[in-house]
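== Sequence, structure tokens ==
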Amino acid sequence: MFDKIVLALIVIGALNWGSIGLFQYDLVAGLFGGQSAFISRIVYTLIALAGVWAISFFFRDSQVQHPSAKEHRGHI
């Protein structure tokens, strides 16, 4: 669940950077009253923390197994 929230924040950040790159428009600042607005700064900070957390994704086991697969592993 936490990883999905992190991924959602990363997607928000990526879309925001895309809008800055393509349209020179900061969506977060536009929605929350400017870059220096308190809420905007919270959103920017949460996105940054999500990015730091996402670094751990590189070091995780890349094979995803269904929970029942462990039960059947020795029974084939």
